[in-house]
Amino acid sequence: TEMIRIIREEEPSKPSTRLSTDESLASSAALRHIEPKKLMALLRGDLDWVVMKCLEKQRDRRYETANGLARDIQRYLDGDGVEARPPSTSYRLRKFARKYRAALVTVGGFALLLLTATAISAGLAVWANRERGRAVAAESAAKEQQARAESREIQAIDAVKRFGDVVANEGELKNSPQLEGLRKTLLKEPLAFFKDLRERLQADAGTTPESLARLAQASFDLGFLTNQIGDKQDALIAFQESLAILQKLADANPTDTRFQSDLARRHNNIGNLLSETGKPSEALEAYESALAIQQKLADANPTVTRFQSDLAGSHNNIGLLLSETGKSGEALEACESALAIQQKLADANPTDTQFQSELALSHNNIGILLRQTGKPGEALKEYESALPIRERLAREHPESPDYASKLGNLLYNMAMIDLADRRFEAARDRLQTAIVWQKKALAANPRNPKYRQFLTNHLTNLIAAARGLDDAEGVADADRELAELRDSDPAMVALDARLAAIIKGDQQPGYNTERLALAQRAYEKSLHATAARLFAEALAADPKLADDRQVQIRYNAACVASLAGCGKGKDDPAPDDGAKTVLRQQALDWLKAELTAWTTLLASADKQQRAVIATTLQHWKVDSDLGGIRDAEGLETLPEAERESWKALWTQVDELLAKATEQPDKDQP
Question: Exposed/middle/buried for 351, CB within 10 Å: 0-12, 13-18, 19+?
Fold first, then answer.
């Protein structure tokens, strides 16, 4: 039985395998006169498979006849390939399966179960991966769509901002009073856009820093455009909304310098607006808040030039505000702090035009302050420090008209000191050079009203210098150039047409800014009665205009009323005697109000403020516009009662001037 099982189930060994383990290998090899290894090599391969084919347990896998075996042996001897081959892998597996059928059934069951579970698991994994892929793809698509939407929104915001900036800053729209209505109409579209944007962002209630930063920027843009159309109170509210958001961002992200820097800038924006609306104390608080933040940023990041430059800018803002409120000493300290920072930046970055230009500007600002406080020699030194910087910038950057204009303006400031000291030749030379540079700037940008106004100032004072030199030809040449300049100004041509229509009664001024521009133009054309009427309308529409101690609109109004009331002017028809009396009384009332304002300011003025008041009152005493109601020759033509009223006014002027110039008590501020 065991022999039968072995014959049926167990596979015989190949001859080469059997011989390799047989002790007779050596003797068998010796009988054949061959080495054992070579004998093994002869058996291994074809002869092994010929023998194994003869011993196959399945009949259909053995040789069919003895002749089949003989032919295969002959093929081996002839060196041809034999029919016998090793069993295939599939055959061996089938034999293995038949031998271990029971075990394989059990294992197969488990394998099938495992495969089924694996298939289900794999299917679920594929489904999960597919769903995850779909979710990721959907999320990615949503993010991509959101990114595209945000990109389009940013592009739209940029486009609307550019449109708003162009409308807000375009010279002809901005400086042509008759176009003020058009300018405001055009600004309403971007204004509505940013209002809707702010409301949508507020509704979204995003809490990420990016969302809040966008909301802060939208509020700022809304405030900027609101300010441009003249609604300063709503603009201030929008700026304050932006400030509140940035404050939260800065508090929540104390190490993010971006939010800290933006917060400081917003304080400065609010300070500028408060200053423009006549709230200097609140403006100063805003500037000081900005300064404190920027000081920390500059101290913590000494190598970041932007923070240093912003810090200098805040010092300059404070200096300008203090100067406008008559605190020249404190203003000078602030500007000198800015200068120290800008000097370091310019020294460390000699090729950076921004830092070089800002350094020159600080020297110029300090020069203006020193001149205002009665220190013309020191002022001139500051101007001289700025001069080589501005000369180099204008020379090396002819493509920038602003550098040429700033150089011309600096030379003009220096010439004003020369004129005051009666150095007429030096003043003439500086002004002629200033005119050359200012003409270059205006030629590059003919619509820039600032360049045109600077050139007008240069030519006007060139006439004064020429008169000081008794140079009649020089006076005539400058007068001719001045007339040509005015006639070539498109805005002035339009303003003249508007003024003519208003004088005829065909049109009425639309805005206060237009009234003031028309009043100034009427004064330049010696239409003094018309100018007085327009100034009166402007002051009635906005009484706060009279509080500005820098512009002094009420004083200018008094000058034109005085001229018209004394019969000096080219109004057609000219005012009759009754109208002249009314105009002179109006001039008297305005000057009394101005004197009261200066008296109030003197009561708490420091040394520098007192110097400004003294300079102002000294100008009253020499201003040719007031000669008809001040000088003896003019007063003699007035009725006695009116003459006495004017004499009383000038006595009060002398008394206030004496107080302004006297040495104050040591304990007085």
Answer: exposed
